[in-house]
Amino acid sequence: MKIGTPKETFDGENRVAMTPDSALQLQKLGYDCAIETGAGAAAGFSDEAYEKAGVEIVKTAAALWKTADIIAKVRQPNETELKRLTKNKTLISFFNPAGNEKGMDLAKSKGANVIAMEMVPRISRAQKMDALSSMANIAGYRAVIEAGNNFGRFFTGQVTAAGKVPPAKVLVVGAGVAGLAAIGTSTSLGAITYAFDVRPEVAEQVESMGAEFVYLDFEEEQQDGAATGGYAAVSSPEFREAQLAKFRELAPEMDIVITTALIPNREAPKLWLEDMVKAMKPGSVIVDLAAERGGNVEGTVPDEKVVTENGVTIIGYTDFPSRMASQASSLYATNVRHMMTDLTPEKDGRINHDMEDDVIRGATVTYQGEITFPPPPPKIQ
Ligand code: NAD
Asked: Which of 279, 297, 276, 283 is nearest to 174 (CA)?
């Protein structure tokens, strides 16, 4: 069978789902590989590099979708792309199934099998395919770099002949995958870093990275995320008030705020309100990693950088992984390659789409003319 990767069609998307390295690994599983000409260029992978790795270069997207049995791409496919699916083709991609009924219907009507990368169950065995985590890790790192790029001062404190420089103070709100990456980057650059999460079980991780966990003076315990599979639930109004009061206290002191707070299947909670933005010093920077889901910050404009009247920069970019396209493509292509390894137990270049396998079942959203989303809960933890 042949695995093909088209050039991404989403405006400004620089990533690619196959790299020369991942192609070599896919060939070891028995597959032929093809790529649309120029598909890797924006991520730093030339047609020549693919050719050297034994990948066939295909001239057009239409020809690529036609020749490939399995299509691996990054972004949710658009209608034109979905219409190119045919019976028994398999698509592996981010798909946003919960918000993409039309796409699922179209794939189903074509009889194609779709594996949605964001649906890979977050269990230990599937970590190597967890593209949500690999992309969130990049987003967290890049958020700090973008903040630094817009902050007119050092992160680390210095004593120089020209004067003493205080260290920057950074607050990371939400210590999941992206938040922890942001914390690690911030502490390694020398900033005094604080972090808050509604799940107190992350405090130890935060502290082990050299940051300070922000506790609330609150009677009730902070939420136990373990009850919701590691995800947060909506906070009680009392808890929220205590959280906002703490943020109000911290706002005038913080130079950089990075927000990453998300609750599954909901709009992002608004946590950094207008008065907190106003209380920050001129020159401070906020990066709202939740911008795509409505934002944690009042004043965030998705995909934009805005500067408030009091001189605070609010960054609402939603394309952080694409801003590090080479690294993001390598990690994503590796996630896809691991998915293919599980789909090819015999290493014979043929897909064995085992719907009894928790990980494959969990990620499959259409199969043999049926919509198979949402999946049943995984059996193995
Ligand atoms: P996410 O993107 O859904 O949320 C980001 C963070 O925001 C979470 O830590 C959440 O608790 C926090 N948050 C939500 N509401 C908040 C609020 N009001 N204030 C402050 N913070 C708030 O989560 P994620 O980063 O994708 O991962 C969440 C968990 O899943 C983590 O514990 C992570 O370790 C775990 N995980 C496990 C695996 C695995 O394979 N076992 C893989 C990936 C992630």
From this structure: 297
Q: Is the CB of 196 under 6 A from ligand 1?
A: yes
- Collect all residues with Cβ–Cβ distance below 8 Å to 237 and sequence separation of at least 6: none
Q: Quick check: ipTM above 0.90?
A: yes
208 catalytic per annotation: no
Confirm whether 127 is a catalytic residue: yes
pLDDT digits (tens, 9 = 90+) for 201-245: 999 999 999 999 999 977 655 565 555 667 888 888 999 999 999
CB-based burial of residue 302 (10 Å sphere; 0-12 exposed, 13-18 middle, 19+ buried)?
Answer: middle
* CA 11 to centroid of ligand 1, rounded, Å: 28
HSE-up (13 A, CA, CB side) for residue 26: 33
DSSP per residue, 291-326: GGGT-SBTT--TT-EEE-TTS-EEE--S-HHHHTHH
Residue 232: CB atoms within 10 Å = 19
Distance of CA 62 to the CA centre of its chain: 28
Cis bond before residue 264 (omega within 30° of 0)? no
Bridge partners (DSSP) listed for residue 160: 163
pLDDT tens digits for 278-335? 999 999 999 999 999 999 999 999 999 999 999 999 999 999 999 999 999 999 999 9
Q: How far is CA 155 from CA 149, 165, 342, in A?
A: 11, 9, 43
Helix (H) or strand (E) holding 15, with range, is none
**Predicted structure pTM score:** 0.95
Answer yes or no: are the C-beta atoms of 75 and 8 closer than 8 Å.
yes
Report how far apart, in Å, the C-alpha atoms of 101 and of each of 67, 109, 262, 355, 372 are.
27, 12, 22, 21, 12
**Catalytic status, residue 84:** no
